[in-house]
Amino acid sequence: MIRAVQLRKRFPNGADALDGVSFTVEKPQLIAVTGPSGSGKTTLFRICNGTVRPTSGEVDVLGIPMASARAGRLQGIRKLVAVVYQNHNLVASLSVLQNVLIGRLGQVNLVSAIRSAFLPTDEDVRRVEHLLDELGIADKLYSRADDLSGGQQQRVAVARALMQEPELLLADEPIASVDTETARVILELLRRVSREQGVTVLVSLHQHQYVEQYCDRVIDLRNGSLVRDETLSELGVAT
Question: Does pTM top 0.85 for this prediction?
């Protein structure tokens, strides 16, 4: 799934965001990536989805070497890697249904994705309704994104990422700005997706009370270095 060997990222100002990080993810797991702000969590995620190149070291994602992959190869892997951002990145003027269907951009071309968002099939609508029901906001299907609360918008962002049907899901602090109920709903769904659908999920968390409750493994970063890599659960994925 992921193989990182002595992964380093140095920015032009001389700061090391990552400094010799090595780990391997061999099977679908829900993995907490922890550490204080500035520890390298977001940089690690950006390297894993190909938006940032490492300064040195090796990183393979789903069998593809990200450090040397050309643009066309990176575009291909991004179809298999979905990202949930802390700031939602929803289109405010579009409905929840349309925002979730935009998640299909990773699977189909732009014209098909736009057609799906504005002229969805019955099957598209059913898939979105199912995801929203899992997240407890099925009644918001036709609401505008900017009419939702922050917690509801984050649930929509999670549904959009899952609509992509990824093999790897990177959730960058998805519960940092939501209430306890929303945090638990999101983490419970991510755990089910990992265990029942075989999706590898990396989720960056500041709230340590959720790590052992929901995650199979924890990778802890401090000042760009890996200081802890521990398995918390040996529960297998349903196949």
Answer: yes
